[in-house]
């Protein structure tokens, strides 16, 4: 059986270690794709506003919390490793669920606004849908890997 520490699963990283351990290497792509969703949705004007507001809330909330989580791990402010691993698992599970709900609602609104023309807003919303599903996938994979790390403690 492979030692869990050799794969980076049984440790919580400090400093630059967040760029070399699994699942922490996913923080940067989560920030990039979440930021792209945020920017693309903010750049479009879509009616109804309510699903767009939900997508904006989810993307901004997850961007900020993921950035804070990244700083916590980078600065080594996590002392009780098992509790931090459980909190990491819980946050990424919630984020994956929130992004899935936002991606589905954004896809629904985007499909409904297709009037046969390839307007700029429609193209931007298509890109936002793709990036929101990518962010969902990243958060889901991070959740699975965080669960594996949590169980290894």
Gist of the model:
The chain has 4 helices and no strands. With 153 residues, the protein is mainly α.
What order do the helices and strands come in, and which of them pair?
Blueprint: H1 27-42, H2 49-75, H3 81-112, H4 120-152
Helix pairs in contact: 1-2, 1-4, 2-3, 3-4
Describe, in plain words, how this protein is organized in 3D.
- This protein is mainly alpha-helical and 153 residues long.
- Helix content is 71%, strand content 0%.
- It is built from four helices and no strands.
- The protein has helices spanning 27-42, 49-75, 81-112, 120-152.
- α1 (27-42) runs antiparallel to α4, α2 packs antiparallel against α3 (81-112) and α3 (81-112) packs antiparallel against α4.
- The chain is elongated.
Count up the domains: 1
Assembly classification: single chain
In terms of DSSP E residues, the strand content is: under 5%
Low-pLDDT regions:
1-8
Number of strands: 0
> Rg from C-alpha positions?
17 Å
Q: What overall geometry do the principal axes of the alpha carbons give?
A: elongated
Distance between the termini: 16 Å
By DSSP (H or I, 4+ residues per run), the number of helices equals 4
């Amino acid at each position: 059986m492979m030692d869990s520490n050799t794969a980076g699963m049984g440790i919580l990283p400090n400093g630059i270690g967040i760029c070399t351990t699994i699942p922490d290497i996913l923080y940067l792509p989560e920030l990039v794709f979440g930021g792209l969703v945020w920017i693309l949705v903010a750049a479009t004007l879509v009616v109804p506003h309510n699903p767009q507001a939900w997508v904006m809330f989810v993307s901004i909330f997850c961007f900020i919390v993921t950035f804070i989580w990244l700083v916590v791990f980078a600065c080594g402010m996590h002392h009780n490793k098992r509790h931090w691993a459980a909190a990491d698992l819980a946050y990424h599970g919630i984020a994956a669920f929130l992004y899935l709900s936002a991606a589905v609602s954004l896809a629904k609104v985007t499909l409904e606004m297709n009037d046969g023309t390839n307007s700029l807003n429609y193209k931007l919303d298509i890109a936002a849908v793709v990036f929101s599903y990518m962010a969902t996938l990243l958060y889901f994979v991070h959740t699975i890997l965080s669960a594996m790390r949590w169980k290894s403690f």
